[in-house]
UniProtKB/TrEMBL annotation:
<keyword id="KW-0809">Transit peptide</keyword>
<keyword id="KW-0804">Transcription</keyword>
<dbReference type="GO" id="GO:0006353">
    <property type="term" value="P:DNA-templated transcription termination"/>
</dbReference>
<dbReference type="InterPro" id="IPR003690">
    <property type="entry name" value="MTERF"/>
</dbReference>
<protein>
    <submittedName>
        <fullName>Uncharacterized protein</fullName>
    </submittedName>
</protein>
<comment type="similarity">
    <text>Belongs to the mTERF family.</text>
</comment>
<dbReference type="GO" id="GO:0003676">
    <property type="term" value="F:nucleic acid binding"/>
</dbReference>
<keyword id="KW-0805">Transcription regulation</keyword>
<dbReference type="Pfam" id="PF02536">
    <property type="entry name" value="mTERF"/>
</dbReference>
<keyword id="KW-0806">Transcription termination</keyword>
<dbReference type="InterPro" id="IPR038538">
    <property type="entry name" value="MTERF_sf"/>
</dbReference>
Length: 519
Protein backbone atom coordinates (compact mmCIF):
# COMPACT_ATOMS: atom_id res chain seq x y z
CA UNK A 1 0.00 0.00 0.00
CA UNK A 2 1.25 3.50 -0.83
CA UNK A 3 0.49 6.80 0.89
CA UNK A 4 0.84 10.08 -1.05
CA UNK A 5 -0.20 13.73 -0.99
CA UNK A 6 -0.15 14.59 -4.69
CA UNK A 7 1.30 11.76 -6.72
CA UNK A 8 1.95 10.61 -10.27
CA UNK A 9 1.61 6.93 -11.25
CA UNK A 10 4.82 5.40 -12.66
CA UNK A 11 4.00 3.85 -16.06
CA UNK A 12 4.50 0.06 -15.70
CA UNK A 13 6.42 -0.19 -18.99
CA UNK A 14 9.22 1.94 -17.52
CA UNK A 15 9.94 -0.63 -14.83
CA UNK A 16 12.37 -3.29 -15.97
CA UNK A 17 14.73 -4.38 -13.19
CA UNK A 18 14.37 -5.48 -9.57
CA UNK A 19 15.70 -3.09 -6.87
CA UNK A 20 19.37 -3.48 -6.06
CA UNK A 21 19.60 -1.49 -2.78
CA UNK A 22 17.54 -1.24 0.45
CA UNK A 23 15.85 2.04 1.36
CA UNK A 24 18.45 3.10 3.89
CA UNK A 25 21.48 2.59 1.60
CA UNK A 26 23.51 5.41 0.09
CA UNK A 27 22.76 5.39 -3.61
CA UNK A 28 25.35 6.25 -6.23
CA UNK A 29 23.66 7.52 -9.37
CA UNK A 30 24.71 5.57 -12.50
CA UNK A 31 24.91 7.02 -15.96
CA UNK A 32 21.57 6.86 -17.81
CA UNK A 33 19.75 6.22 -14.48
CA UNK A 34 16.91 8.46 -13.29
CA UNK A 35 15.72 8.65 -9.65
CA UNK A 36 12.58 9.87 -7.89
CA UNK A 37 11.72 10.07 -4.19
CA UNK A 38 9.15 7.45 -3.29
CA UNK A 39 7.09 7.41 -0.06
CA UNK A 40 6.21 3.79 0.60
CA UNK A 41 4.18 2.14 3.37
CA UNK A 42 4.97 -1.53 3.73
CA UNK A 43 2.53 -3.61 5.76
CA UNK A 44 4.22 -6.94 5.32
CA UNK A 45 4.78 -7.29 9.10
CA UNK A 46 4.20 -3.87 10.62
CA UNK A 47 3.69 -0.42 9.18
CA UNK A 48 6.85 1.49 8.30
CA UNK A 49 7.39 4.62 6.25
CA UNK A 50 10.57 5.58 4.40
CA UNK A 51 11.67 8.13 1.82
CA UNK A 52 14.54 7.01 -0.44
CA UNK A 53 15.89 7.42 -3.96
CA UNK A 54 14.55 4.73 -6.30
CA UNK A 55 15.60 3.95 -9.88
CA UNK A 56 12.58 4.60 -12.04
CA UNK A 57 12.95 1.38 -14.06
CA UNK A 58 12.67 -0.83 -10.95
CA UNK A 59 9.62 -3.04 -11.03
CA UNK A 60 7.80 -3.67 -7.72
CA UNK A 61 4.83 -5.84 -7.03
CA UNK A 62 3.43 -3.04 -4.81
CA UNK A 63 1.52 -0.11 -6.29
CA UNK A 64 4.06 2.69 -6.56
CA UNK A 65 3.53 6.41 -7.01
CA UNK A 66 5.90 9.36 -7.40
CA UNK A 67 5.74 11.95 -4.65
CA UNK A 68 5.04 15.46 -5.95
CA UNK A 69 5.72 18.83 -4.35
CA UNK A 70 2.85 20.64 -5.99
CA UNK A 71 1.43 21.79 -9.27
CA UNK A 72 4.61 23.56 -10.34
CA UNK A 73 6.36 20.17 -10.44
CA UNK A 74 3.54 18.43 -12.31
CA UNK A 75 4.89 19.33 -15.77
CA UNK A 76 8.38 18.21 -14.83
CA UNK A 77 7.01 14.97 -13.44
CA UNK A 78 5.09 14.32 -16.67
CA UNK A 79 8.21 14.99 -18.72
CA UNK A 80 10.29 12.72 -16.55
CA UNK A 81 7.61 10.04 -16.81
CA UNK A 82 7.75 10.17 -20.62
CA UNK A 83 11.53 10.00 -20.60
CA UNK A 84 11.45 7.19 -18.12
CA UNK A 85 9.04 5.31 -20.38
CA UNK A 86 11.52 5.51 -23.27
CA UNK A 87 14.48 4.48 -21.12
CA UNK A 88 12.50 1.67 -19.58
CA UNK A 89 11.46 0.39 -22.99
CA UNK A 90 15.09 0.57 -24.14
CA UNK A 91 16.35 -1.49 -21.23
CA UNK A 92 13.48 -3.90 -21.73
CA UNK A 93 14.68 -4.28 -25.33
CA UNK A 94 18.20 -5.01 -24.12
CA UNK A 95 16.84 -7.52 -21.63
CA UNK A 96 14.99 -9.35 -24.44
CA UNK A 97 18.36 -9.85 -26.14
CA UNK A 98 19.86 -11.32 -22.97
CA UNK A 99 21.78 -8.26 -21.74
CA UNK A 100 21.85 -7.47 -18.03
CA UNK A 101 22.02 -3.91 -16.69
CA UNK A 102 25.81 -3.83 -16.64
CA UNK A 103 26.16 -5.05 -20.21
CA UNK A 104 23.43 -2.70 -21.42
CA UNK A 105 25.16 0.29 -19.86
CA UNK A 106 28.47 -0.77 -21.44
CA UNK A 107 26.83 -0.86 -24.87
CA UNK A 108 25.23 2.56 -24.31
CA UNK A 109 28.57 4.02 -23.28
CA UNK A 110 30.18 2.78 -26.52
CA UNK A 111 27.37 4.06 -28.73
CA UNK A 112 25.52 6.97 -27.05
CA UNK A 113 23.37 7.34 -30.18
CA UNK A 114 21.39 4.33 -29.01
CA UNK A 115 20.13 6.28 -25.98
CA UNK A 116 18.90 9.13 -28.15
CA UNK A 117 17.31 6.87 -30.78
CA UNK A 118 13.63 6.12 -30.93
CA UNK A 119 12.99 2.71 -29.39
CA UNK A 120 10.68 1.75 -32.25
CA UNK A 121 13.53 2.49 -34.69
CA UNK A 122 15.77 0.15 -32.72
CA UNK A 123 13.09 -2.54 -32.67
CA UNK A 124 12.72 -2.25 -36.45
CA UNK A 125 16.49 -2.56 -36.88
CA UNK A 126 16.50 -5.74 -34.81
CA UNK A 127 13.53 -7.10 -36.79
CA UNK A 128 15.41 -6.29 -40.00
CA UNK A 129 18.47 -8.22 -38.86
CA UNK A 130 16.26 -11.13 -37.86
CA UNK A 131 14.54 -11.02 -41.26
CA UNK A 132 17.83 -11.74 -43.05
CA UNK A 133 18.41 -14.82 -40.92
CA UNK A 134 20.26 -13.74 -37.79
CA UNK A 135 19.33 -15.65 -34.63
CA UNK A 136 18.92 -13.85 -31.30
CA UNK A 137 22.17 -15.19 -29.86
CA UNK A 138 24.02 -13.96 -32.96
CA UNK A 139 22.33 -10.58 -32.63
CA UNK A 140 23.51 -10.31 -29.03
CA UNK A 141 27.04 -11.22 -30.08
CA UNK A 142 26.94 -8.72 -32.94
CA UNK A 143 25.62 -5.83 -30.85
CA UNK A 144 28.19 -6.55 -28.13
CA UNK A 145 31.00 -6.43 -30.70
CA UNK A 146 29.67 -3.56 -32.81
CA UNK A 147 27.06 -1.46 -30.93
CA UNK A 148 26.88 0.80 -33.99
CA UNK A 149 24.96 -2.01 -35.70
CA UNK A 150 21.78 -0.71 -34.04
CA UNK A 151 22.06 2.81 -35.43
CA UNK A 152 24.38 2.78 -38.49
CA UNK A 153 22.59 3.68 -41.71
CA UNK A 154 24.95 1.35 -43.60
CA UNK A 155 23.37 -1.64 -41.85
CA UNK A 156 19.90 -0.49 -42.87
CA UNK A 157 21.00 -0.12 -46.49
CA UNK A 158 22.52 -3.61 -46.45
CA UNK A 159 19.29 -5.15 -45.11
CA UNK A 160 17.28 -3.39 -47.80
CA UNK A 161 19.68 -4.59 -50.51
CA UNK A 162 19.54 -8.21 -49.34
CA UNK A 163 15.75 -8.11 -49.42
CA UNK A 164 15.89 -6.84 -53.00
CA UNK A 165 17.92 -9.75 -54.38
CA UNK A 166 16.17 -12.37 -56.51
CA UNK A 167 17.54 -15.10 -54.28
CA UNK A 168 18.65 -15.05 -50.69
CA UNK A 169 22.09 -14.81 -49.24
CA UNK A 170 22.60 -17.62 -46.77
CA UNK A 171 22.19 -16.55 -43.11
CA UNK A 172 25.63 -17.93 -42.29
CA UNK A 173 27.17 -15.64 -44.93
CA UNK A 174 25.36 -12.61 -43.49
CA UNK A 175 26.44 -13.62 -40.00
CA UNK A 176 30.08 -13.88 -41.09
CA UNK A 177 29.88 -10.56 -42.91
CA UNK A 178 28.45 -8.60 -39.99
CA UNK A 179 30.64 -10.19 -37.32
CA UNK A 180 33.82 -9.56 -39.34
CA UNK A 181 33.06 -6.09 -40.63
CA UNK A 182 32.62 -2.78 -38.85
CA UNK A 183 29.34 -1.16 -39.96
CA UNK A 184 31.16 1.76 -41.58
CA UNK A 185 32.78 -0.62 -44.08
CA UNK A 186 29.37 -1.78 -45.29
CA UNK A 187 28.95 1.50 -47.14
CA UNK A 188 28.42 1.06 -50.88
CA UNK A 189 27.91 -2.70 -50.68
CA UNK A 190 25.07 -2.51 -53.21
CA UNK A 191 27.14 -0.40 -55.62
CA UNK A 192 30.00 -2.89 -55.55
CA UNK A 193 27.68 -5.80 -56.31
CA UNK A 194 26.13 -3.81 -59.17
CA UNK A 195 29.67 -3.41 -60.52
CA UNK A 196 29.94 -7.19 -60.83
CA UNK A 197 26.70 -7.26 -62.79
CA UNK A 198 27.83 -4.50 -65.15
CA UNK A 199 31.00 -6.44 -65.95
CA UNK A 200 29.08 -9.51 -67.03
CA UNK A 201 28.26 -11.65 -64.01
CA UNK A 202 24.74 -12.97 -64.80
CA UNK A 203 21.94 -11.73 -62.54
CA UNK A 204 20.89 -15.32 -61.84
CA UNK A 205 24.43 -16.14 -60.66
CA UNK A 206 25.02 -13.17 -58.37
CA UNK A 207 23.53 -14.81 -55.27
CA UNK A 208 25.71 -17.87 -55.90
CA UNK A 209 28.75 -15.59 -56.06
CA UNK A 210 27.83 -13.77 -52.85
CA UNK A 211 27.25 -17.06 -51.05
CA UNK A 212 30.68 -18.41 -51.98
CA UNK A 213 33.02 -15.51 -51.41
CA UNK A 214 34.38 -13.73 -48.36
CA UNK A 215 32.02 -10.74 -48.44
CA UNK A 216 34.14 -8.83 -45.97
CA UNK A 217 37.47 -9.39 -47.73
CA UNK A 218 36.34 -9.34 -51.35
CA UNK A 219 33.64 -6.65 -51.22
CA UNK A 220 33.50 -4.52 -48.08
CA UNK A 221 37.19 -3.97 -47.38
CA UNK A 222 37.93 -3.11 -51.01
CA UNK A 223 37.18 0.12 -52.77
CA UNK A 224 35.12 0.31 -55.94
CA UNK A 225 38.34 1.07 -57.83
CA UNK A 226 40.08 -2.05 -56.51
CA UNK A 227 37.19 -4.30 -57.53
CA UNK A 228 37.05 -2.55 -60.90
CA UNK A 229 40.75 -3.30 -61.44
CA UNK A 230 40.25 -7.03 -60.84
CA UNK A 231 37.35 -7.18 -63.29
CA UNK A 232 39.20 -5.15 -65.92
CA UNK A 233 42.22 -7.46 -65.65
CA UNK A 234 40.10 -10.58 -66.18
CA UNK A 235 38.29 -8.88 -69.06
CA UNK A 236 41.54 -8.86 -71.05
CA UNK A 237 41.21 -12.64 -71.24
CA UNK A 238 37.43 -12.76 -71.67
CA UNK A 239 37.42 -14.41 -68.26
CA UNK A 240 35.14 -12.33 -66.01
CA UNK A 241 32.69 -15.22 -66.21
CA UNK A 242 35.04 -17.45 -64.23
CA UNK A 243 33.96 -15.57 -61.11
CA UNK A 244 30.53 -17.17 -61.43
CA UNK A 245 32.22 -20.58 -61.74
CA UNK A 246 34.77 -19.97 -58.98
CA UNK A 247 33.58 -17.05 -56.78
CA UNK A 248 36.47 -17.48 -54.34
CA UNK A 249 38.77 -15.92 -56.97
CA UNK A 250 37.40 -12.57 -55.84
CA UNK A 251 39.17 -13.14 -52.53
CA UNK A 252 42.59 -13.02 -54.19
CA UNK A 253 44.73 -9.92 -54.36
CA UNK A 254 45.21 -8.59 -57.88
CA UNK A 255 48.86 -7.58 -57.75
CA UNK A 256 50.34 -10.28 -55.52
CA UNK A 257 48.25 -13.27 -56.61
CA UNK A 258 46.20 -13.00 -59.80
CA UNK A 259 48.67 -11.09 -61.97
CA UNK A 260 51.70 -13.35 -61.22
CA UNK A 261 49.65 -16.53 -61.77
CA UNK A 262 48.22 -15.41 -65.08
CA UNK A 263 51.71 -14.19 -65.94
CA UNK A 264 53.07 -17.75 -65.87
CA UNK A 265 50.46 -18.83 -68.43
CA UNK A 266 50.99 -15.69 -70.50
CA UNK A 267 54.72 -16.34 -70.76
CA UNK A 268 54.20 -20.04 -71.48
CA UNK A 269 51.79 -19.23 -74.32
CA UNK A 270 54.14 -16.73 -75.91
CA UNK A 271 51.65 -13.90 -75.34
CA UNK A 272 48.54 -15.70 -76.59
CA UNK A 273 45.84 -13.93 -74.56
CA UNK A 274 43.04 -15.83 -76.29
CA UNK A 275 44.71 -19.11 -75.40
CA UNK A 276 45.22 -18.03 -71.80
CA UNK A 277 41.56 -17.05 -71.64
CA UNK A 278 40.55 -20.52 -72.86
CA UNK A 279 42.63 -22.12 -70.11
CA UNK A 280 41.10 -19.85 -67.45
CA UNK A 281 37.57 -20.56 -68.63
CA UNK A 282 38.14 -24.31 -68.79
CA UNK A 283 39.72 -24.48 -65.35
CA UNK A 284 39.16 -21.35 -63.22
CA UNK A 285 40.71 -23.25 -60.30
CA UNK A 286 44.10 -22.95 -62.00
CA UNK A 287 44.29 -19.47 -60.45
CA UNK A 288 44.13 -20.98 -56.98
CA UNK A 289 47.65 -22.34 -57.43
CA UNK A 290 50.59 -20.15 -56.47
CA UNK A 291 52.73 -18.88 -59.33
CA UNK A 292 55.66 -20.84 -57.88
CA UNK A 293 53.65 -24.07 -58.15
CA UNK A 294 52.63 -23.36 -61.74
CA UNK A 295 56.21 -22.63 -62.71
CA UNK A 296 57.35 -25.83 -61.01
CA UNK A 297 54.88 -27.88 -63.09
CA UNK A 298 56.17 -26.29 -66.28
CA UNK A 299 59.75 -27.09 -65.33
CA UNK A 300 58.75 -30.70 -64.60
CA UNK A 301 57.29 -31.16 -68.10
CA UNK A 302 60.40 -29.61 -69.61
CA UNK A 303 62.71 -31.86 -67.61
CA UNK A 304 60.86 -35.18 -67.73
CA UNK A 305 59.31 -35.07 -71.22
CA UNK A 306 61.71 -32.74 -73.01
CA UNK A 307 58.88 -30.47 -74.17
CA UNK A 308 59.17 -26.85 -75.28
CA UNK A 309 57.07 -24.06 -73.75
CA UNK A 310 54.84 -23.97 -76.81
CA UNK A 311 54.25 -27.74 -76.63
CA UNK A 312 53.57 -27.57 -72.90
CA UNK A 313 51.01 -24.81 -73.39
CA UNK A 314 49.15 -26.84 -76.04
CA UNK A 315 48.88 -29.68 -73.54
CA UNK A 316 47.73 -27.25 -70.84
CA UNK A 317 45.15 -25.91 -73.27
CA UNK A 318 43.74 -29.43 -73.76
CA UNK A 319 44.16 -30.58 -70.16
CA UNK A 320 44.57 -27.65 -67.73
CA UNK A 321 44.51 -30.08 -64.80
CA UNK A 322 48.04 -31.06 -65.71
CA UNK A 323 49.00 -28.10 -63.53
CA UNK A 324 47.59 -29.87 -60.48
CA UNK A 325 49.16 -33.29 -61.12
CA UNK A 326 51.71 -34.41 -58.55
CA UNK A 327 55.12 -34.38 -60.17
CA UNK A 328 56.56 -37.26 -58.16
CA UNK A 329 53.49 -39.50 -57.83
CA UNK A 330 52.04 -39.12 -61.33
CA UNK A 331 53.82 -36.86 -63.79
CA UNK A 332 57.28 -38.40 -63.64
CA UNK A 333 56.17 -42.11 -63.45
CA UNK A 334 53.73 -41.68 -66.36
CA UNK A 335 56.37 -40.15 -68.61
CA UNK A 336 58.95 -42.74 -67.54
CA UNK A 337 56.51 -45.47 -68.65
CA UNK A 338 56.23 -43.89 -72.10
CA UNK A 339 60.01 -43.73 -72.36
CA UNK A 340 60.24 -47.41 -71.40
CA UNK A 341 57.84 -48.12 -74.28
CA UNK A 342 60.40 -46.59 -76.63
CA UNK A 343 58.85 -43.16 -77.24
CA UNK A 344 61.04 -40.15 -77.92
CA UNK A 345 60.18 -36.59 -76.88
CA UNK A 346 58.35 -35.82 -80.12
CA UNK A 347 56.33 -39.04 -79.89
CA UNK A 348 55.50 -38.36 -76.24
CA UNK A 349 54.20 -34.95 -77.25
CA UNK A 350 51.97 -36.40 -80.00
CA UNK A 351 50.66 -39.07 -77.64
CA UNK A 352 49.82 -36.49 -74.95
CA UNK A 353 47.92 -34.43 -77.50
CA UNK A 354 45.72 -37.49 -78.13
CA UNK A 355 45.26 -38.41 -74.48
CA UNK A 356 46.56 -35.72 -72.11
CA UNK A 357 44.40 -37.03 -69.25
CA UNK A 358 46.80 -39.99 -69.10
CA UNK A 359 49.06 -37.81 -66.94
CA UNK A 360 46.42 -37.30 -64.27
CA UNK A 361 44.75 -40.71 -63.91
CA UNK A 362 45.25 -42.89 -60.86
CA UNK A 363 47.40 -45.94 -61.53
CA UNK A 364 45.76 -48.19 -58.92
CA UNK A 365 42.13 -47.26 -59.69
CA UNK A 366 42.37 -46.73 -63.44
CA UNK A 367 45.51 -47.35 -65.46
CA UNK A 368 46.44 -50.68 -63.87
CA UNK A 369 43.07 -52.21 -64.82
CA UNK A 370 43.30 -50.95 -68.40
CA UNK A 371 46.88 -52.13 -68.73
CA UNK A 372 45.86 -55.64 -67.63
CA UNK A 373 43.04 -55.78 -70.22
CA UNK A 374 45.28 -54.58 -73.04
CA UNK A 375 47.93 -57.16 -72.21
CA UNK A 376 45.23 -59.83 -72.06
CA UNK A 377 44.10 -59.17 -75.65
CA UNK A 378 47.67 -59.35 -76.92
CA UNK A 379 49.57 -56.09 -76.37
CA UNK A 380 53.19 -56.59 -75.33
CA UNK A 381 54.90 -54.76 -72.48
CA UNK A 382 57.22 -51.85 -73.24
CA UNK A 383 56.07 -51.38 -76.84
CA UNK A 384 54.96 -48.25 -78.65
CA UNK A 385 51.69 -49.98 -79.53
CA UNK A 386 50.89 -50.47 -75.84
CA UNK A 387 51.67 -46.82 -75.13
CA UNK A 388 49.35 -45.67 -77.93
CA UNK A 389 46.58 -48.00 -76.75
CA UNK A 390 46.92 -46.66 -73.19
CA UNK A 391 46.62 -43.10 -74.47
CA UNK A 392 43.41 -43.98 -76.33
CA UNK A 393 42.02 -45.82 -73.31
CA UNK A 394 42.41 -42.75 -71.10
CA UNK A 395 39.21 -41.36 -72.66
CA UNK A 396 37.10 -44.18 -71.25
CA UNK A 397 36.63 -45.99 -67.95
CA UNK A 398 37.91 -49.47 -67.12
CA UNK A 399 34.31 -50.70 -67.00
CA UNK A 400 33.46 -49.38 -70.47
CA UNK A 401 36.70 -50.70 -71.93
CA UNK A 402 35.81 -54.15 -70.62
CA UNK A 403 32.31 -53.85 -72.11
CA UNK A 404 33.66 -52.93 -75.56
CA UNK A 405 36.06 -55.89 -75.53
CA UNK A 406 33.21 -58.17 -74.44
CA UNK A 407 31.01 -56.94 -77.32
CA UNK A 408 33.72 -57.76 -79.85
CA UNK A 409 34.21 -61.20 -78.34
CA UNK A 410 30.45 -61.86 -78.41
CA UNK A 411 30.41 -60.99 -82.14
CA UNK A 412 32.89 -63.77 -82.81
CA UNK A 413 36.10 -61.76 -82.87
CA UNK A 414 39.16 -63.28 -81.21
CA UNK A 415 41.64 -61.43 -79.02
CA UNK A 416 43.97 -61.31 -82.01
CA UNK A 417 41.18 -59.71 -84.08
CA UNK A 418 40.60 -57.06 -81.41
CA UNK A 419 44.34 -56.39 -81.26
CA UNK A 420 44.47 -56.06 -85.05
CA UNK A 421 41.51 -53.65 -85.18
CA UNK A 422 42.73 -51.50 -82.30
CA UNK A 423 46.26 -51.15 -83.69
CA UNK A 424 44.72 -49.97 -86.98
CA UNK A 425 42.40 -47.57 -85.19
CA UNK A 426 43.22 -47.07 -81.50
CA UNK A 427 40.08 -45.00 -80.74
CA UNK A 428 37.83 -48.09 -80.94
CA UNK A 429 39.01 -48.77 -77.38
CA UNK A 430 37.38 -45.56 -76.15
CA UNK A 431 34.00 -45.77 -77.88
CA UNK A 432 30.76 -45.98 -75.95
CA UNK A 433 29.66 -49.64 -75.65
CA UNK A 434 26.01 -48.92 -76.51
CA UNK A 435 27.06 -46.93 -79.58
CA UNK A 436 29.30 -49.79 -80.75
CA UNK A 437 26.43 -52.27 -80.37
CA UNK A 438 24.00 -50.17 -82.41
CA UNK A 439 26.47 -49.64 -85.24
CA UNK A 440 27.40 -53.32 -85.45
CA UNK A 441 23.69 -54.20 -85.53
CA UNK A 442 23.07 -51.66 -88.32
CA UNK A 443 26.10 -52.92 -90.26
CA UNK A 444 25.03 -56.56 -90.22
CA UNK A 445 21.22 -56.32 -90.27
CA UNK A 446 20.42 -53.18 -92.29
CA UNK A 447 23.48 -52.75 -94.49
CA UNK A 448 23.74 -56.54 -94.86
CA UNK A 449 27.52 -56.52 -94.49
CA UNK A 450 29.70 -59.16 -92.92
CA UNK A 451 31.03 -58.43 -89.45
CA UNK A 452 34.53 -59.14 -90.77
CA UNK A 453 34.32 -55.85 -92.69
CA UNK A 454 35.36 -54.19 -89.44
CA UNK A 455 38.73 -55.93 -89.60
CA UNK A 456 39.70 -53.91 -92.65
CA UNK A 457 37.92 -50.70 -91.62
CA UNK A 458 37.44 -50.49 -87.81
CA UNK A 459 37.13 -46.69 -88.11
CA UNK A 460 33.54 -47.32 -89.27
CA UNK A 461 32.61 -47.49 -85.57
CA UNK A 462 33.69 -43.88 -85.12
CA UNK A 463 31.13 -42.31 -87.48
CA UNK A 464 27.80 -40.94 -86.32
CA UNK A 465 25.06 -43.49 -86.90
CA UNK A 466 22.31 -41.11 -88.02
CA UNK A 467 24.05 -38.25 -89.80
CA UNK A 468 26.72 -40.31 -91.54
CA UNK A 469 26.19 -44.07 -91.63
CA UNK A 470 22.41 -44.26 -92.12
CA UNK A 471 22.29 -41.17 -94.36
CA UNK A 472 24.96 -42.45 -96.76
CA UNK A 473 23.67 -46.00 -96.83
CA UNK A 474 20.14 -44.89 -97.73
CA UNK A 475 21.39 -42.48 -100.39
CA UNK A 476 23.65 -45.18 -101.82
CA UNK A 477 20.69 -47.58 -102.09
CA UNK A 478 18.62 -44.88 -103.81
CA UNK A 479 21.15 -44.05 -106.55
CA UNK A 480 22.18 -47.67 -107.08
CA UNK A 481 25.43 -48.61 -108.75
CA UNK A 482 28.08 -51.12 -107.82
CA UNK A 483 28.88 -51.89 -104.22
CA UNK A 484 31.30 -49.67 -102.36
CA UNK A 485 33.66 -50.59 -99.57
CA UNK A 486 32.91 -49.24 -96.11
CA UNK A 487 36.03 -47.12 -96.37
CA UNK A 488 34.88 -45.37 -99.57
CA UNK A 489 31.30 -45.07 -98.36
CA UNK A 490 32.31 -43.30 -95.18
CA UNK A 491 35.40 -41.28 -96.06
CA UNK A 492 34.45 -39.48 -99.28
CA UNK A 493 33.46 -35.85 -98.74
CA UNK A 494 29.79 -34.92 -98.52
CA UNK A 495 30.04 -32.69 -101.59
CA UNK A 496 31.45 -35.41 -103.79
CA UNK A 497 29.11 -38.01 -102.34
CA UNK A 498 26.09 -35.96 -103.41
CA UNK A 499 27.09 -36.05 -107.10
CA UNK A 500 25.66 -38.24 -109.85
CA UNK A 501 24.95 -41.93 -109.81
CA UNK A 502 27.65 -42.44 -112.43
CA UNK A 503 30.27 -40.74 -110.32
CA UNK A 504 29.19 -42.63 -107.22
CA UNK A 505 29.64 -45.90 -109.08
CA UNK A 506 33.31 -45.12 -109.79
CA UNK A 507 33.99 -43.25 -106.56
CA UNK A 508 37.26 -43.36 -104.73
CA UNK A 509 38.23 -41.51 -101.65
CA UNK A 510 41.00 -41.00 -99.25
CA UNK A 511 40.93 -42.61 -95.84
CA UNK A 512 39.91 -40.61 -92.82
CA UNK A 513 37.37 -40.34 -90.08
CA UNK A 514 34.82 -37.56 -89.82
CA UNK A 515 31.91 -36.83 -87.52
CA UNK A 516 33.16 -39.35 -84.99
CA UNK A 517 30.85 -40.48 -82.21
CA UNK A 518 32.64 -41.42 -79.03
CA UNK A 519 29.84 -40.68 -76.57
Amino acid sequence: MVDLMRSTLIPPQTLAYLPKLPAYSTVRVRRHAYFSVINVYNFSSFPTQRLYPWPIWIQQSNSVFLRSNGSKNAAASTKNAAASTEIGALFSLFQSLGFDEKKAEAILSRNPDIGSSDVEFLRNRIRGLQSVGLEDFVLAQLISKYPDTLTAKEVGSLIKFIHGLDGKIEPLQIERLLLRTEPRFLAGFDKKVELLLRHGIPQEKIVHVLNNVSLSKAICLRSVQEIESVLTFLSRYEAVGIIAKRPSLLNYDLNTQLVPRVGVLQKLSGGDEDGVGQVLNRLPAILTYASEHLQSQVEGLRKYAGLSDQEIFKIVLLFPNVMSVSKERKLRPRIDFLKECGLEAREIYRLLLRGPAYLGLSFEKNLAHKLAMLVKIGYSFRTKELAMAMAAATRTTPKKLQEVISIFLSCGFSSDNILEMSTKHYPILQYNPRSVERKIEYLTEVMDREIEALLSFPAFLGYNLDSRIRHRHELRKKVGGEDMSLNKLMTVSAERFSKTKKYLAHLGGKAGVEDSDTD
